[in-house]
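Weekly sync, protein design subgroup
Attendees: M.S., D.O., the rotation student, P.L. (late)

Item 1: inverse folding check
M.S. brought a backbone from last month's batch and wanted to see whether the design step gives back something sensible before we order anything. D.O. pointed out we never logged the input encoding, so this time it goes straight into the notes. Structure tokens as presented (370 positions):
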């Protein structure tokens, strides 16, 4: 049985800063109203560890998810989220980017005791299958008036701030909307947290280990504009970020895969997630670029017991599907192929073209022989 180590933590209480709705945005500020516009001095102070800490951690316009918070949900949904006191499995689909995938192999015990929450925006909700919503294991929550224009950045709110959304949960398993959970959540917690005696676990990137290499890959794939990525990496360099060196690092990688996060909710892990989110709010939405910068600033100051397991281990408990647009393109392509294979007009014209080509080749051969 797992025994929480929260009594040994140096942070006894973590609370969150709010901001007046009349705040005047100064020129050069990059953080947002949802994040609370933390200054660089605020950022520096947030890494100074105290027993009682008050930091920026999203929802700066309101004390909880709800009206005018940047993550507006129904009061009934919020009440149910607060009532989740054990394990929560959460995911999100914004911008109709993925299809809803129901977890499988969930035990009867887990289906009763574990909370399963799927956050969607209105656009996504319009495309969901009604049967899936009514009979699936996910509790689907519609989020309105989202904080950012970018759907992927909005997805970072539940991904990194589950402790704000589920203030009474003890453990959480986050899975990206592109993934399908195929193993019971208690088995995942047992294997990756409790057995290894860590309080947060996520998979490392299967190919890249260096933030500088990851930044170049993001630029090549046009994940974000080059200038903003370069500015973020230059800022981290000025703070001491160096290329990854396995011989000198405490960790097997500086780049997480990030699509799965397994953690215990403690003041320590909550602090880590808040500060990670603040980087996403200030810089690019590519959380892989900011992970190591936050981790390395906190290691040695707090008992953050972090595990970065192999990505092949992740693939044992979640399976990945293509995003909706790719699946739809493939479906259209297969449909066209099926039509061509059964259309007699297409088949006749195809045979006619082949016959004409053979006749043409034969005529050319005879002419050449003469």
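Designed sequence read out in the meeting:
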């Amino acid at each position: 049985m797992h025994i929480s180590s929260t009594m040994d933590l140096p942070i006894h209480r973590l609370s969150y800063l709010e901001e007046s709705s009349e705040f005047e945005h100064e020129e050069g500020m990059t953080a947002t109203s949802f994040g609370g516009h933390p200054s660089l001095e605020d950022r520096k102070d947030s890494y100074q560890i105290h027993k009682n800490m008050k930091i920026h951690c999203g929802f700066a316009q309101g004390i909880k998810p709800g009206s005018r918070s940047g993550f507006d949900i129904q009061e009934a949904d919020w009440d149910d989220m607060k009532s989740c006191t054990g394990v929560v499995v959460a995911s999100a689909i914004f911008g109709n980017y993925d299809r809803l995938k129901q977890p499988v192999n969930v035990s009867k015990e887990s289906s009763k005791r574990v909370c399963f929450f799927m956050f969607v925006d209105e656009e996504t909700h319009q495309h969901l299958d009604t049967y899936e919503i009514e009979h699936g294991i996910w509790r689907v929550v519609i989020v309105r008036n989202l904080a950012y224009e970018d759907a992927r950045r909005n997805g970072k709110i539940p991904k990194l701030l589950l402790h704000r959304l589920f203030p009474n949960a003890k453990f959480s398993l986050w899975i990206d909307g592109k993934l399908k959970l195929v193993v019971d959540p208690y088995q995942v917690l047992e294997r990756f947290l409790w057995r290894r005696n860590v309080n947060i676990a996520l998979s490392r990137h299967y190919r890249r280990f260096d933030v500088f290499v990851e930044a170049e890959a993001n630029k090549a794939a046009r994940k974000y504009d080059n200038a903003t990525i370069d500015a973020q990496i230059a800022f981290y360099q000025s703070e001491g970020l160096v290329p990854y060196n396995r011989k000198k690092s405490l960790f097997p990688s500086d780049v997480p895969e990030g699509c799965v996060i397994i953690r215990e909710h403690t003041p320590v892990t909550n602090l880590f997630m808040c500060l990670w989110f603040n980087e996403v709010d200030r810089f690019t939405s590519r959380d892989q670029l900011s992970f190591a910068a936050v981790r390395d600033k906190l290691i040695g100051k707090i008992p953050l017991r972090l595990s970065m397991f192999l990505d092949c281990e992740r693939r044992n408990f979640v399976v990945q599907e293509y995003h909706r647009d790719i699946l739809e393109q493939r479906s259209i392509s297969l449909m066209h192929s099926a039509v061509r294979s059964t259309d007699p007009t297409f088949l006749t014209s195809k045979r006619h073209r082949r016959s004409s080509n053979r006749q043409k080749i034969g005529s050319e051969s005879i002419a050449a022989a003469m």
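Discussion: The chain has two domains: 59-321, 326-369. Residues 326-369 form one domain.
Action: P.L. to compare against the previous round before Friday.
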